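Reviewers of the previous submission asked for a worked example of the structure-prediction workflow described in the proposal, so we include one complete record here. The input consisted solely of the amino acid sequence. No template or homolog information was supplied to the procedure at any stage.
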Amino acid sequence: VLQQALQELDYPASSHRYVGAIEQPLMPGDTVVMLADGRQLNSRQARQLADAVEQGLHLVALQPGGRRRQAAIDPGRLLRQLGFQANPDCDKDHCDQRLLPPEGASVEQHDQRQLSVRLGHGRVDLFTSLDFLRTGKVLPGREQTGINGFASDGLASADNQNKAWQLLAPNLGRGHVYLVYDQRQDRWWMRLLRDGVMTWLPLALLLAGWLWARSQRLGPLLPDPEPERRSLREHI
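From that input alone, the workflow returned the following structure tokens.
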């Protein structure tokens, strides 16, 4: 829904399953919204996003969670590259924010739900939950749903819509908006089966044809000997 709303307003936007699926180079003025845990990013992707933030990228990401509320979290490669650190006070019973902003960064909001900082020419907004940017659940009863039959726990809520526009406002209209809705990458064999059908199917047919052609020559290398001829005496 968010992608469709942006496109209807002539804002360039696209959805991607994971960061590695973004084929275009990230430019200053772009916005990347990551709706999944970014700790699965590899080193190259984390370095690419961190460099893009320094140059003017607006990154909206989900704060990584932990197994226990009191335990310090692992920020992951991306947040460590940006300079975020786990809050040691969270080892105690209570803490307001489980992450500490990078040193020298301009902090705009720092509370239990959101941590917003400016880094270089870019901006980073970290949330404990980004469910307000999702489409929302579909409920069977129309009287209990929001717009288009969706539950009002997502973008069907007017408050969530206003919050989404305010969040995207810094770079809106200046570049492309990339919506990353998942960060789990497929196994190589799953991608081969799904995306490589135009390659492996002709190869399989070629292999079957070659095996059929070779099967026509299966058998002994020497021809069968001719049957023995009767001697002249037996013939007479």
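The radius of gyration is 30 Å. We consider this example representative of the routine output the project will generate in years two and three.
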